[in-house]
Amino acid sequence: MARPTMAQDIERRIRELILERRLGPGDPLPTEAELMELFDAGRVSVREALKALQAMNVVEIRRGFGTFVGSLSLSPFAEGLAFRAAVRHRQGEPGLLELMKVREALEAGLVGAVTAGIPAEDLAVLRELVATMESEARTGRVGRATDRAFHLALYASLDNHLLSEVLDAFWAAMDQVREDLDDGHQDPATTVAQHHEIAEAVAAADGARAVRAMRTHFDGVRARLGAEG
Question: Does the keyword Disulfide bond apply (predicted)?
Answer without folding.
Answer: no
